[in-house]
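Hey, sorry to bother you again with one of my protein questions. A protein chain has come my way and I'm curious about its shape. I'm sending you its amino acid sequence along with the backbone structure tokens. I owe you a coffee for this, so here goes:
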Amino acid sequence: MTLRELLIQELDNVSDPLIVEVIDFLQILKTRQKKDHLALDQVSADLAFTSLQGDSQVANYRLQGERYRYDDPFSPAIPLEEWEILKS
């Protein structure tokens, strides 16, 4: 018995309200799958574009943008002398 046949057999044994829920769930899954495929296609197209452009054009890649600056987590936020005063 295939999975499709098993599903049909299960659907034959449930009430109509539950079938409505199953249909809604199936439509949600199909929509999610379409979105995932579209996103994957877009990423693939972007990667193909950047590989065709070469290294000199990578800056034009749409996901590359302004670099974010983060503070060094290992440097103290205030000078150590002031920290000693605040601790006491």
User: Anything to note?
Assistant: The mean pLDDT is 78. The CA atoms of residues 3 and 9 lie 10 Å apart.
